[in-house]
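Regression test case RT-17, inverse folding.

Input:
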């Protein structure tokens, strides 16, 4: 895709314009404020290796683990944040590259906690390159914007022939147990999947603190929101296997028969997390023909 189109998609939403002019207490670009992680996976024989790994604190990815009894050659990579959370002025950049036929699973060791901010904002840009016939299973942990936080994230997925991906995360609008429901200042998230320079799907969300009064319209009487993007060219099965039970949700087909988007709402976070794992299991069975293992977090 053209660089202009990418820059337009990733451009900072106008709601952040005034925040961007505020100098944080520790300047953007200072040590510990710019987290960078670049991971590159390549397959040799039956095993995928993490051949390149660059991490700049506070972003850090652990050494890959191989514990999947169904896919012993597939690496599991866990992100850790030694600071415990994200503060004003933090800028994160992730880049994941999967070469031809590579496969990998990426997640976090803990939820993404976005702390209170009185100056500037925090952001994360993730760019994912899927090589031909590669497969990525990317399930970040829950994202929790605390009261008065300001967060912008965007994820760009570059697909290739035969590549497949499941990307899912859960949005928790504040620390519910601390009565901080929907008390963040602004939260914005964008996801785009493109192939050959042609955007296939764009999903954009922008929530403001004042939107709390519209919650019945936005979320009904539910609290937590799951979003999942199952990319797979010519996907013809899997949709009918998704059962929501007590969760309120739905499935939408992507253009060009290239996959599905799943949205689900619940008041029970544990229930929604289980649904996410069940969805991963369906993805694994349809795309690989194996079960998903028990996900061990270290």
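Golden output:
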């Amino acid at each position: 895709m053209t660089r202009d189109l990418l820059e337009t998609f990733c451009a900072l939403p106008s709601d952040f314009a005034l925040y961007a002019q505020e100098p944080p207490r520790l300047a953007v670009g200072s040590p510990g404020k710019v987290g960078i992680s670049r991971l590159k996976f390549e397959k040799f024989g039956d095993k995928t290796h993490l051949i390149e790994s660059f991490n700049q604190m506070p972003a850090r990815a652990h050494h890959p683990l191989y514990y999947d009894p169904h896919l012993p050659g597939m690496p599991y990579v866990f992100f850790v944040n030694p600071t415990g959370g994200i503060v004003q002025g933090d800028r994160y950049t992730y880049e994941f590259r999967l070469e031809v036929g590579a496969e990998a699973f990426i997640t976090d060791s803990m939820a993404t906690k976005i702390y209170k901010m009185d100056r500037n904002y925090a952001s994360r840009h993730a760019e994912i390159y899927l090589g031909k016939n590669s497969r990525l299973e990317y399930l970040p942990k829950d994202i929790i914007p605390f009261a008065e936080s300001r967060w912008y994230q965007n994820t760009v997925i570059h697909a290739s022939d035969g590549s497949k991906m499941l990307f899912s995360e859960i949005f928790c609008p504040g620390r519910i147990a601390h009565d901080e429901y929907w008390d963040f200042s602004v939260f914005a998230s964008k996801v785009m999947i493109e192939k050959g320079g042609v955007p296939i799907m764009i999903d954009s969300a922008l929530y403001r603190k004042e939107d709390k009064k519209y919650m019945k319209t936005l979320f009904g009487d539910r609290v937590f929101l799951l979003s999942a993007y199952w990319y797979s060219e010519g996907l013809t099965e899997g949709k009918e296997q998704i059962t929501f039970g007590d969760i309120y949700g739905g499935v939408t087909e992507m253009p060009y028969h290239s996959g599905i988007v799943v949205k689900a709402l619940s008041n029970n976070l544990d229930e929604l997390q289980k649904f996410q794992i069940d969805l991963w299991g369906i993805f694994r069975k349809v795309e690989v023909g194996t079960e998903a293992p028990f996900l061990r977090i270290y």
